[in-house]
Amino acid sequence: MTATTTAPLAATDERTVGQPSARLRAWATRAPLLPALAFMIVVTQLPFVATLVISFFDWNALYPKARRFTGLDNYRQVLTDADLRHSVWTTVLLTAGVVLASLVLGLALALLLDRRFRGRGIVRTLLIAPFLVVPVAAALLWKHVLYNPEYGLLNGLLHYVGGPQPDWVSRTPLLAVEASLVWQWTPFMMLILLAGLQSRDQQQIEAARVDGASDWQIFRHLTLPHLRRYLELGALLGSIYIVQNFDAVFTITSGGLGTANLPYTVYQSFYQAHENGLASAAGVLVVIGSIVIATFALRVVSSLFREEVSRA
Amino acid sequence: MTAVLRRGGLGLVAWLAGIVFFLPIAWMALTSFHSEADAATNPPSFTASLTLDGYREFFGTGGGASPWPALVNSAVASVASTLLVLVLALPAAYALSIRPVKKWTDVLFFFLSTKMLPAVAGLLPIYLFARNAGMLDNVWLLVVLYTSMNLPIAVWMMQSFLAEVPVAVIEAARVDGARLPTVLTRVVAPIALPGIAATALICFIFSWNELLFARVLTGVVAETAPVFLTGFITSQGLFLAKVCAASLVISLPVLAAGFAAQDKLVQGLSLGAVK
């Protein structure tokens, strides 16, 4: 008892002579961090814990009285439901397809823009624009203005060359959603890879050129290894955003024609079917999938980060 | 000779790519100035006369719902949450970069990991909470959620920007007796201002673009601009000019902010890892 009362006293004594105790100082260093930390925990972690709890209940919002604990039943149902399994597969296809295509296209564009040519600034601005269109607006643009079989621009241009006039969205629904996302995300990949290209060691490249290395050899043995981290970063950040995509799926197909990805399915099962328990279980599965990506993601980002700290 | 030709050729390819990527936006802009009859033709008409009818329709002067309340809601939600993000992230970034707390990288990664928690994972409890608390269809709920969405990115970005502020300057101010708020506003903020501005722009863009939370948690009163746009999802060819006008007007703040922050945009979006 005496010990606990004297300890703070001693601390106060010390402070009066201008020497804050180590503990006080530690809290002073931590204090600026606390509001942000507390905010994040309350707004993101608590709701997730609640989702986890709800996922163990059989709970349809239309029949609130019939709510009961069912253990892992929701998970069993989610994993055996053909539609839900399909939406898992759709999510994988959508994310992998969009990330890979936009990375390859972005790399090609970054290589083009890394060279000096007339009007480079204008071309760069033109290329960034798709990333800056509000996602719903971009999806509407593709759905109505480009894809429409009767008056869309794609078929309009095909008309001039006497090509076929397909109904893009109903014929290749997933590809239609993917194309619009590739269009939006290629500029993002290009920007990251361009930053990577411009941080190359020019002297090293000059030296290689003097030694008689061809453009391809320089690309293959100097540029590509240097870009590896930037490619990884682009792939991971792209995955984080595209795995969660809701806007394009919701707008272009409304999840129809087999394009419902997991976020759309979760939205639908609680917003339209009012199946709170099932939706939560599906939501938890999305999180588990994200954790798999995230573990990998954090490793890559932290290796980038360590490199920077050691450079500093 | 061949090198010159090739360089010119690749420049041409770059121009071509830029035009292909921009074409849908240019076509959207042209269509927004066409009459509805001219907008919905096949083959497309490049020479139809221009009119502001699409914009008149969009702004409700030609009948239909006015987009102004939605635009105002989006502005309130985006600006207010951006300010709240800055208020919370600036001290946090200070604690993580200038006077690093112990295990500061772990804290930094905690922030990043929340970004990997998909929005749908917490949507239902947030909806239930909002309904019980009478906060559905309330724009301030969106402010809180958008803040949680952008805070991790902002902490990461600002951490990397603040790390560039020389410690000696801060120590000097502290020796002169300046307390934390003064140090932040008088010493750190002015030096890190370009980075802080870029952070703010990116938070603004993400908030302005957000659809899922706004769609689920708002209705008539707090509807945002992207939710207003979803009203056009099933619209048929008769409204093509109006759809284009609406999409362009609602994208305008983001296009302006994005072009203004082009260089910082990439650094911010890659969480400061790419310089």
UniProtKB/TrEMBL annotation, chain A:
Instruction: Tell me where in this chain the ABC transmembrane type-1 domain is found.
Output: 88-297
Q: Does the keyword Zinc apply?
A: no
Keywords tagged on the record = Cell membrane, Membrane, Transmembrane, Transmembrane helix, Transport
* Domain of life (superkingdom): Bacteria
Q: Where are the transmembrane segments?
A: 33-57, 88-113, 125-145, 174-197, 230-257, 277-301
- Quote the subcellular location field of this record: Cell membrane
What main location does UniProt list?
A: membrane
> What membrane topology is given?
Multi-pass membrane protein
Coiled coil (residue ranges): none
Family membership: Belongs to the binding-protein-dependent transport system permease family.
User: Know the name of this protein?
Assistant: Inner membrane ABC transporter permease protein YcjO
TrEMBL record, chain B:
Localization (cell): Cell membrane
User: Its family?
Assistant: Belongs to the binding-protein-dependent transport system permease family.
Where would you say this protein principally sits, based on its record?
membrane
Identification of the protein by name: Trehalose transport system permease protein SugB
- The reply to whether Cell inner membrane figures as a keyword in the UniProt entry is no
Q: Looking at the Swiss-Prot or TrEMBL record, what is one Pfam family this protein matches?
A: BPD_transp_1
List where the protein spans the membrane: 12-30, 75-96, 108-128, 140-162, 183-207, 213-232, 239-261
